[in-house]
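Example A, followed by Example B.
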Amino acid sequence: MVLVVGVMMVMNVGSAHDYAEALSKSILFFEGQRSGKLPPTQRMTWRKDSALHDGSDIGVDLVGGYYDAGDNVKFNFPMAFSTTMLAWSVLEYSKAMGPEADHAREAIRWATDYFLKATSRPGVVFAQVGEPYKDHNCWERPEDMDTPRTAYSVSRQLPGSEVSAEIAAALASSSLVFRQVDPAYAKTLLDRAKSVFEFANTYRGSYNTSLGRIVCPFYCNFGGYEDELIWGAAWLFQATKTSYYWDYVVQNVRGSSSSYAANFAEFGWDSKNAGINVLFSKFVMKGGPYSSLFLPNADRFVCTILPESPTKSVKYSPGGLMFKPGGSNLQHATALSYLLIVYAKYLNHENRTVQCDNVVARPQRLIQFAKSQVDYILGSNPLGMSYMVGYGNKFPQKIHHRGSTLPSIKKHPKKLGCQDGKPYFDSKSPNPNVLTGAIVGGPDIKDQYSDSRLDFTQSEPTTYINAPFVGVLAYFKSHHKA
């Protein structure tokens, strides 16, 4: 334990990163993931219009939104989580973002415009667009794709509470982002969030059951839908301050299942538990009858992470990178770092510390640890490699991403079919299109990284790795000496 802390400190001595540049690029990445008709303001110009007929076969406009990773499917569950995290980042750190706050709002609106379409039919929520197995068997540009663009939905008869409640959270949190700059749009988002949450709560069930053959194994919900319902209500309380949503959160946390309680340290597209406790901690930080529902578990979450904590449950690479089970490990480093800096902010406000048995962690320690993860990702690691594409002098060149791998339409206007992309996938050359700002899955627990398209767990970027990192970078941009 002491050795890990020492190595982490050594790796970060003298590291000087341009957090403003990294922030700008982390937001720009989302333009590379856009689906639909691209606007004249599109800055990542090698990307062009794609999937312009999504939903047309069933008479619904489902054009827009984001591709989740290196494929061409729109998975609405992780897309909604990414949107919620972008919104939370703006709500906490928009002033620190400076002019990038406008770009962050654009990234959010690209998603919320789509989610308004995906929830436009009463009693129906669209959960996915694209046939994933056929899509994953092709290596083609999104601009060329000819695999089925089937739209999959949940309904009263075939419920999907997790995807619906996460969309409600995305809409509610985003309504707060637009409240000052576009009140009418904010009201539209909030009204829809309320109705979608009501649908998710009234017709309970997992989309694993309703759409299992399509959503699994890609984005199966492993943690149950209970956390998404509470998460959705928590964001609706943030947006409305009405007692209904407060009572819903309190009652459902109090009466939650053992699986919900067991996941107190989890946070990501699948599990919202740690995020719920951190989010609601600011309302109960002064104490009171409900503080015991949130603060102890928020503290316990911190204690599972800090290297010096006797109750830590995460592992570390020799270079100090946090590891949790599952692929695309940097999703944990970015999402959990975000929770740490936000919780540190709330703790600071009330002059509180975290007690991990005999170890006392002050808010500054949480920030210090988050900075170690940020700096590792940006290049302060044994390989001296930035895991953000386009940042630093050394970064991944052969990421697992179709659009990045294949020549742009501008350079190769002729259609590239399903299997025409294989030679590009197999190529030893760097990707021709730089997906600026993309954060890949990251190195292994020995700090090794194979710059290979084949190793998608290491080389594939995702929206839900980048989204929480936006807020983290905004914080460190304005706190260089943290």
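Example B, a separate protein, is given below in the same form.
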Amino acid sequence: MMKKSNWGALLSAAFLMAISAIGPGFLTQTALFTSQLGASFGFIILASIIVDIVAQMNIWRIVAVSGTPAQDIANKLLPGLGYGLATMVALGGMAFNIGNLAGAGLGLQVLFGMDVTHGAICSAVIAIGIFLYKEASRAMDFFVKILGVMMIFLMLYIAFKSNPPLLEAAARTISPKQFSFTALVTIIGGTVGGYITFAGAHRLLDKGIRGVENLPTVDRGAISAIGIASVMRILLFIAALGVVSAGYLIDPANPPASVFRWAGGEVGYKIFGLVMWAAAITSVIGSAYTSITFIKSFHIRIQAHDRFVTVGFILVSCLLYGFIGNPVQTLVVVGAINGFILPLALAVMLIAAHQTTIVGSYRQPFWLTTSGTIIALIMTYMGVQTLFELLT
């Protein structure tokens, strides 16, 4: 039986990873792909869940067994590689935080009619307040759990109101009429890409969950995190499917807002504002926390004052949002670069899994190594293709 303290650590890691995934981009991509693929998008979600679990279990297991964060593992394999990985994660996290703050501002605008920029600043202040609190770790865990549960229940209400064709969704999840490789890679990247998968792995380390003896806890945490994020995606998918099946058009400029409004009227639109704000501010927190866990290795003072460095990270993100205004182009470019982080990190973990100097006598299961290698190769190919399209 798992210790009570381990259950708490597991839930903290699972929710942090899940809410890091459920951001403005997550909501937009799910609604948009549902409008394009209809019920067949259910198959994409199912396939992505399998891929996400394999990728996440590979990464979480090696981080836990080695007892060291991902960048230190990379540095042990090749001196300097960890610093490069950490820089990519931190810069990507900051760029996406610009979009997260914009999403938070949009959510408050829908709720209260507040100017988007002012809403972004208010949200940044709230996030900073959490990290300045003397019990910041507990405050962060409580905040993300409460908002995570709230989002799921609100999404459940909208899914119910949209009256989705559940039988068709179930049938097409097994036997799709359409398939989009781009949609598959996009939502995989949106769930375990960039800094996201490391959020929970590094949180487990902070909670003292490490070593081979804790692998059952690590596995449960990895699967639970994907499960939480997937529940949210499935609920949004069937809500959007209900809207599309009823003949309503989803606005490509703001797909999730259309889903909530068509399904729930003005009340639904206000719920969209609340869900958007909750998704965005929790992603701000998850991104800031995880990015700083990567750059702690740069200098001992960063490790000693990590809370204040995290506050600075959020402040810089907010200032950059003020200068950039519309973060869309920034997110597109950095998104392409971010696409390389998952295959790079996964490749590092797969190699590290067979280095006795890192994992001791531990042996990674063959099926995890094989499936992880296939995923790393596919994601590398798609990352190159995306970057090539941007450059040309």
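On Example B: The radius of gyration is 20 Å.
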